[in-house]
Amino acid sequence: MRSLGLLTASNVDVKEPRMASMEELQMFHSEEYLQFVQEMSRTGDGYLDLGDTPAFKGCFEASALAVGASLTAVDIVMSGHAKHAVNIAGGLHHAHKDHASGFCIFNDPAVAIAYLKKKYSLNKILYLDVDAHHGDGVMYGFYDDAALLDIDFHEDGRNLFPGTGFVNEIGEGKASGLKINIPLPPFMNDDGYLKLFTEIVPRAVRKFRPEILLMQCGADAHANDLLAHLKLTSKTYREATTIVDALSHEVSDSRLILFGGGGYNLANVARTWTLVSAASIGYSLPNEIPENWRKLFEALVGEPAPTTLDSECAYHDLPEEVISEMVSSTLAKLKANIGLLDS
Question: Which of 337, 343, 268, 342 is nearest to 309 (CA)?
Fold first, then answer.
Protein backbone atom coordinates (compact mmCIF):
# COMPACT_ATOMS: atom_id res chain seq x y z
CA MET A 1 0.00 0.00 0.00
CA ARG A 2 2.74 2.43 0.95
CA SER A 3 4.91 1.65 -2.07
CA LEU A 4 1.98 2.30 -4.43
CA GLY A 5 1.10 5.63 -2.82
CA LEU A 6 -2.23 4.50 -1.34
CA LEU A 7 -1.47 5.57 2.22
CA THR A 8 -0.53 9.10 1.16
CA ALA A 9 -3.45 9.64 -1.21
CA SER A 10 -5.34 12.89 -0.69
CA ASN A 11 -8.45 11.16 0.66
CA VAL A 12 -6.63 8.67 2.92
CA ASP A 13 -5.67 9.22 6.56
CA VAL A 14 -3.74 6.74 8.71
CA LYS A 15 -4.81 6.69 12.37
CA GLU A 16 -3.15 5.12 15.40
CA PRO A 17 -5.27 2.38 17.02
CA ARG A 18 -5.88 1.91 20.72
CA MET A 19 -6.34 -1.07 22.97
CA ALA A 20 -9.88 -2.15 23.72
CA SER A 21 -10.79 -1.91 27.39
CA MET A 22 -11.98 -4.82 29.52
CA GLU A 23 -15.45 -3.31 29.52
CA GLU A 24 -15.46 -3.18 25.73
CA LEU A 25 -14.19 -6.75 25.38
CA GLN A 26 -16.97 -7.87 27.74
CA MET A 27 -19.54 -6.61 25.26
CA PHE A 28 -18.99 -9.98 23.56
CA HIS A 29 -16.57 -12.10 25.60
CA SER A 30 -17.15 -13.58 29.04
CA GLU A 31 -15.24 -12.24 32.03
CA GLU A 32 -13.99 -15.74 32.85
CA TYR A 33 -12.52 -16.17 29.39
CA LEU A 34 -10.84 -12.76 29.48
CA GLN A 35 -9.22 -13.61 32.81
CA PHE A 36 -8.02 -16.92 31.35
CA VAL A 37 -6.37 -15.13 28.40
CA GLN A 38 -4.75 -12.63 30.75
CA GLU A 39 -3.17 -15.45 32.74
CA MET A 40 -2.01 -17.30 29.62
CA SER A 41 -0.63 -14.03 28.29
CA ARG A 42 1.56 -13.65 31.36
CA THR A 43 3.13 -17.09 31.03
CA GLY A 44 3.11 -17.42 27.25
CA ASP A 45 2.78 -21.21 27.45
CA GLY A 46 0.20 -23.66 26.15
CA TYR A 47 -2.85 -23.25 23.94
CA LEU A 48 -5.96 -21.12 24.24
CA ASP A 49 -8.10 -23.81 22.62
CA LEU A 50 -7.68 -27.50 21.80
CA GLY A 51 -4.52 -26.98 19.77
CA ASP A 52 -4.94 -24.38 17.03
CA THR A 53 -4.37 -21.14 18.91
CA PRO A 54 -1.14 -20.92 20.92
CA ALA A 55 -0.68 -18.49 23.75
CA PHE A 56 2.32 -16.18 23.71
CA LYS A 57 3.56 -13.53 26.09
CA GLY A 58 1.52 -10.41 25.51
CA CYS A 59 -1.21 -12.20 23.56
CA PHE A 60 -3.91 -10.46 25.59
CA GLU A 61 -2.55 -7.00 24.81
CA ALA A 62 -1.93 -7.80 21.14
CA SER A 63 -5.45 -9.14 20.73
CA ALA A 64 -6.99 -6.21 22.62
CA LEU A 65 -5.12 -3.87 20.26
CA ALA A 66 -6.59 -5.65 17.22
CA VAL A 67 -10.06 -5.19 18.72
CA GLY A 68 -9.31 -1.59 19.63
CA ALA A 69 -8.27 -0.90 16.04
CA SER A 70 -11.69 -2.09 14.87
CA LEU A 71 -13.41 0.08 17.48
CA THR A 72 -11.29 3.01 16.32
CA ALA A 73 -12.52 2.32 12.79
CA VAL A 74 -16.11 2.32 14.07
CA ASP A 75 -15.66 5.66 15.85
CA ILE A 76 -14.00 7.23 12.80
CA VAL A 77 -16.89 6.25 10.54
CA MET A 78 -19.72 6.93 13.00
CA SER A 79 -18.29 10.35 13.89
CA GLY A 80 -18.27 11.30 10.22
CA HIS A 81 -14.49 11.79 10.14
CA ALA A 82 -14.40 9.34 7.21
CA LYS A 83 -16.94 7.42 5.17
CA HIS A 84 -14.90 4.21 5.13
CA ALA A 85 -12.29 2.69 7.46
CA VAL A 86 -10.01 -0.34 7.17
CA ASN A 87 -8.46 -2.47 9.92
CA ILE A 88 -6.26 -5.01 8.17
CA ALA A 89 -5.27 -6.53 11.54
CA GLY A 90 -8.91 -7.32 12.27
CA GLY A 91 -11.39 -9.88 10.97
CA LEU A 92 -10.64 -12.47 13.68
CA HIS A 93 -14.02 -14.10 13.21
CA HIS A 94 -13.54 -17.55 14.82
CA ALA A 95 -13.22 -16.53 18.47
CA HIS A 96 -16.32 -17.32 20.52
CA LYS A 97 -17.65 -15.66 23.64
CA ASP A 98 -15.89 -18.09 25.94
CA HIS A 99 -13.03 -19.62 23.94
CA ALA A 100 -10.43 -19.03 21.27
CA SER A 101 -10.57 -20.82 17.94
CA GLY A 102 -8.79 -20.97 14.60
CA PHE A 103 -5.92 -18.57 15.45
CA CYS A 104 -8.44 -16.01 16.78
CA ILE A 105 -8.23 -14.96 20.45
CA PHE A 106 -10.75 -12.08 20.54
CA ASN A 107 -13.45 -11.59 17.94
CA ASP A 108 -13.06 -7.97 16.85
CA PRO A 109 -15.97 -7.93 14.34
CA ALA A 110 -18.29 -9.31 17.04
CA VAL A 111 -17.12 -6.73 19.59
CA ALA A 112 -17.53 -4.02 16.92
CA ILE A 113 -21.12 -5.15 16.27
CA ALA A 114 -21.94 -5.08 19.99
CA TYR A 115 -20.22 -1.68 20.27
CA LEU A 116 -22.28 -0.28 17.39
CA LYS A 117 -25.45 -1.46 19.08
CA LYS A 118 -24.57 -0.13 22.54
CA LYS A 119 -22.71 3.12 21.85
CA TYR A 120 -24.49 4.20 18.67
CA SER A 121 -27.86 2.47 19.15
CA LEU A 122 -27.79 0.89 15.70
CA ASN A 123 -30.38 -1.81 15.09
CA LYS A 124 -29.58 -2.72 11.48
CA ILE A 125 -26.03 -3.87 10.79
CA LEU A 126 -24.63 -5.90 7.89
CA TYR A 127 -21.74 -8.30 8.46
CA LEU A 128 -20.45 -9.71 5.17
CA ASP A 129 -17.68 -12.31 5.31
CA VAL A 130 -15.73 -13.51 2.24
CA ASP A 131 -13.00 -15.41 4.10
CA ALA A 132 -12.56 -19.00 2.87
CA HIS A 133 -13.45 -20.17 6.39
CA HIS A 134 -16.92 -19.70 7.87
CA GLY A 135 -17.18 -16.86 10.38
CA ASP A 136 -18.68 -19.10 13.05
CA GLY A 137 -17.85 -16.89 16.03
CA VAL A 138 -19.81 -13.99 14.60
CA MET A 139 -22.76 -15.99 13.28
CA TYR A 140 -23.37 -18.08 16.41
CA GLY A 141 -22.66 -15.07 18.63
CA PHE A 142 -25.62 -13.25 17.04
CA TYR A 143 -27.66 -16.21 15.81
CA ASP A 144 -30.92 -14.95 17.33
CA ASP A 145 -30.14 -11.24 16.97
CA ALA A 146 -32.40 -9.52 14.44
CA ALA A 147 -30.14 -6.45 14.39
CA LEU A 148 -27.53 -8.33 12.36
CA LEU A 149 -27.77 -9.47 8.77
CA ASP A 150 -24.91 -11.97 8.41
CA ILE A 151 -23.95 -13.02 4.86
CA ASP A 152 -21.09 -15.50 4.72
CA PHE A 153 -19.38 -16.92 1.61
CA HIS A 154 -16.97 -19.72 2.49
CA GLU A 155 -15.66 -23.12 1.46
CA ASP A 156 -18.07 -25.91 2.36
CA GLY A 157 -17.69 -26.96 6.00
CA ARG A 158 -17.55 -30.60 4.94
CA ASN A 159 -14.12 -29.85 3.48
CA LEU A 160 -12.69 -27.09 5.63
CA PHE A 161 -12.47 -25.76 9.19
CA PRO A 162 -14.60 -24.95 11.18
CA GLY A 163 -17.12 -27.38 9.65
CA THR A 164 -20.08 -25.00 9.94
CA GLY A 165 -22.02 -22.51 7.85
CA PHE A 166 -24.54 -24.63 5.96
CA VAL A 167 -27.44 -23.31 3.91
CA ASN A 168 -30.00 -24.42 6.50
CA GLU A 169 -28.33 -22.33 9.25
CA ILE A 170 -30.53 -19.26 8.80
CA GLY A 171 -30.83 -17.86 12.33
CA GLU A 172 -33.58 -18.34 14.87
CA GLY A 173 -36.43 -16.44 16.48
CA LYS A 174 -36.79 -12.92 15.15
CA ALA A 175 -33.45 -13.38 13.34
CA SER A 176 -34.71 -16.31 11.26
CA GLY A 177 -33.71 -15.65 7.66
CA LEU A 178 -31.07 -13.08 8.59
CA LYS A 179 -28.12 -15.49 8.58
CA ILE A 180 -27.29 -16.33 4.96
CA ASN A 181 -24.62 -18.99 4.47
CA ILE A 182 -23.21 -19.75 1.04
CA PRO A 183 -20.97 -22.85 1.27
CA LEU A 184 -18.79 -23.28 -1.81
CA PRO A 185 -17.20 -26.42 -3.27
CA PRO A 186 -13.43 -26.69 -3.55
CA PHE A 187 -12.10 -25.13 -6.78
CA MET A 188 -14.90 -22.57 -7.06
CA ASN A 189 -13.72 -19.89 -9.48
CA ASP A 190 -14.40 -16.19 -10.07
CA ASP A 191 -17.38 -16.66 -12.39
CA GLY A 192 -19.41 -18.91 -10.11
CA TYR A 193 -18.54 -16.88 -7.02
CA LEU A 194 -19.52 -13.57 -8.59
CA LYS A 195 -22.79 -15.02 -9.91
CA LEU A 196 -23.76 -15.93 -6.36
CA PHE A 197 -22.44 -12.68 -4.93
CA THR A 198 -24.32 -10.44 -7.35
CA GLU A 199 -27.54 -12.47 -6.95
CA ILE A 200 -27.51 -12.47 -3.15
CA VAL A 201 -25.71 -9.49 -1.66
CA PRO A 202 -27.36 -6.49 -3.38
CA ARG A 203 -30.84 -8.01 -3.04
CA ALA A 204 -30.48 -8.79 0.67
CA VAL A 205 -28.82 -5.49 1.51
CA ARG A 206 -31.44 -3.41 -0.29
CA LYS A 207 -34.26 -5.19 1.53
CA PHE A 208 -32.61 -5.10 4.96
CA ARG A 209 -31.24 -1.55 4.52
CA PRO A 210 -28.47 -1.64 7.15
CA GLU A 211 -27.23 1.52 8.80
CA ILE A 212 -23.61 0.41 8.38
CA LEU A 213 -21.82 -2.25 6.34
CA LEU A 214 -19.00 -4.39 7.78
CA MET A 215 -16.99 -6.59 5.41
CA GLN A 216 -14.43 -9.21 6.44
CA CYS A 217 -12.00 -9.59 3.52
CA GLY A 218 -10.11 -12.81 4.23
CA ALA A 219 -7.50 -13.37 1.51
CA ASP A 220 -7.52 -17.16 1.85
CA ALA A 221 -10.22 -17.67 -0.79
CA HIS A 222 -7.55 -16.66 -3.31
CA ALA A 223 -6.11 -19.38 -5.53
CA ASN A 224 -2.98 -21.05 -4.15
CA ASP A 225 -3.73 -20.33 -0.52
CA LEU A 226 -2.02 -22.87 1.73
CA LEU A 227 -5.05 -23.78 3.86
CA ALA A 228 -8.09 -23.50 1.57
CA HIS A 229 -9.04 -24.80 -1.87
CA LEU A 230 -10.93 -22.03 -3.65
CA LYS A 231 -9.67 -20.54 -6.92
CA LEU A 232 -10.50 -16.86 -6.77
CA THR A 233 -8.29 -14.16 -8.23
CA SER A 234 -7.96 -10.42 -7.77
CA LYS A 235 -11.01 -10.02 -10.04
CA THR A 236 -13.44 -11.28 -7.40
CA TYR A 237 -11.96 -9.27 -4.54
CA ARG A 238 -11.97 -6.07 -6.59
CA GLU A 239 -15.51 -6.54 -7.97
CA ALA A 240 -17.00 -7.66 -4.65
CA THR A 241 -15.56 -4.65 -2.85
CA THR A 242 -16.76 -2.31 -5.58
CA ILE A 243 -20.29 -3.70 -5.23
CA VAL A 244 -20.24 -3.31 -1.45
CA ASP A 245 -18.85 0.22 -1.70
CA ALA A 246 -21.70 1.20 -4.04
CA LEU A 247 -24.26 -0.38 -1.69
CA SER A 248 -22.86 1.58 1.24
CA HIS A 249 -23.45 4.82 -0.64
CA GLU A 250 -26.96 3.65 -1.53
CA VAL A 251 -28.28 2.43 1.83
CA SER A 252 -26.05 3.48 4.73
CA ASP A 253 -24.86 7.03 4.06
CA SER A 254 -21.57 5.52 2.80
CA ARG A 255 -20.67 3.95 6.18
CA LEU A 256 -18.39 0.98 5.48
CA ILE A 257 -15.73 -0.77 7.56
CA LEU A 258 -13.36 -3.38 6.12
CA PHE A 259 -11.46 -5.98 8.15
CA GLY A 260 -8.61 -8.26 7.16
CA GLY A 261 -8.94 -11.94 8.12
CA GLY A 262 -7.30 -15.13 6.97
CA GLY A 263 -4.64 -15.52 4.30
CA TYR A 264 -1.69 -17.91 4.25
CA ASN A 265 0.02 -17.08 0.96
CA LEU A 266 1.86 -13.88 1.80
CA ALA A 267 2.06 -12.57 -1.77
CA ASN A 268 -1.69 -12.97 -2.16
CA VAL A 269 -2.36 -11.33 1.22
CA ALA A 270 -0.41 -8.20 0.29
CA ARG A 271 -2.02 -7.90 -3.13
CA THR A 272 -5.57 -8.72 -2.00
CA TRP A 273 -5.77 -6.26 0.87
CA THR A 274 -4.15 -3.52 -1.19
CA LEU A 275 -6.72 -4.06 -3.96
CA VAL A 276 -9.62 -4.23 -1.51
CA SER A 277 -8.60 -1.03 0.27
CA ALA A 278 -8.08 0.84 -3.00
CA ALA A 279 -11.36 -0.41 -4.47
CA SER A 280 -13.28 0.80 -1.43
CA ILE A 281 -12.32 4.41 -2.21
CA GLY A 282 -12.09 4.19 -5.98
CA TYR A 283 -8.32 4.70 -5.93
CA SER A 284 -6.71 3.72 -9.23
CA LEU A 285 -3.62 1.59 -8.74
CA PRO A 286 -0.94 0.77 -11.31
CA ASN A 287 -0.82 -2.95 -12.01
CA GLU A 288 2.96 -3.23 -11.79
CA ILE A 289 4.31 -3.67 -8.26
CA PRO A 290 7.31 -1.40 -7.53
CA GLU A 291 10.73 -3.01 -7.54
CA ASN A 292 11.61 -1.72 -4.06
CA TRP A 293 8.65 -3.63 -2.59
CA ARG A 294 9.53 -6.80 -4.53
CA LYS A 295 13.06 -6.70 -3.15
CA LEU A 296 11.78 -6.18 0.40
CA PHE A 297 9.32 -9.06 0.05
CA GLU A 298 11.96 -11.45 -1.28
CA ALA A 299 14.40 -10.49 1.49
CA LEU A 300 11.80 -11.00 4.22
CA VAL A 301 9.94 -14.01 2.87
CA GLY A 302 12.56 -15.83 0.82
CA GLU A 303 10.15 -16.39 -2.07
CA PRO A 304 9.81 -14.78 -5.49
CA ALA A 305 7.68 -11.66 -5.29
CA PRO A 306 4.66 -11.09 -7.51
CA THR A 307 5.24 -8.54 -10.24
CA THR A 308 1.62 -7.42 -10.73
CA LEU A 309 -1.35 -6.70 -8.49
CA ASP A 310 -3.71 -8.55 -10.80
CA SER A 311 -3.57 -12.30 -10.35
CA GLU A 312 -4.71 -15.22 -12.43
CA CYS A 313 -5.55 -18.85 -11.81
CA ALA A 314 -4.02 -21.04 -14.48
CA TYR A 315 -6.46 -23.89 -13.91
CA HIS A 316 -10.00 -24.52 -12.74
CA ASP A 317 -10.52 -28.10 -11.64
CA LEU A 318 -14.27 -27.65 -11.25
CA PRO A 319 -16.13 -28.01 -14.58
CA GLU A 320 -18.33 -25.12 -15.60
CA GLU A 321 -21.45 -27.29 -15.65
CA VAL A 322 -20.79 -28.29 -12.03
CA ILE A 323 -20.39 -24.65 -11.01
CA SER A 324 -23.59 -23.70 -12.84
CA GLU A 325 -25.57 -26.43 -11.10
CA MET A 326 -24.11 -25.49 -7.73
CA VAL A 327 -25.08 -21.84 -8.21
CA SER A 328 -28.64 -22.77 -9.23
CA SER A 329 -29.19 -25.25 -6.40
CA THR A 330 -27.73 -22.92 -3.74
CA LEU A 331 -29.93 -20.04 -4.83
CA ALA A 332 -33.01 -22.30 -4.87
CA LYS A 333 -32.33 -23.51 -1.32
CA LEU A 334 -31.71 -20.00 -0.03
CA LYS A 335 -34.74 -18.45 -1.67
CA ALA A 336 -36.95 -21.10 -0.10
CA ASN A 337 -35.87 -19.98 3.39
CA ILE A 338 -34.63 -16.40 3.13
CA GLY A 339 -37.34 -13.78 2.71
CA LEU A 340 -34.75 -11.14 1.88
CA LEU A 341 -34.04 -13.03 -1.35
CA ASP A 342 -37.62 -13.17 -2.61
CA SER A 343 -38.04 -11.84 -6.12
Answer: 268
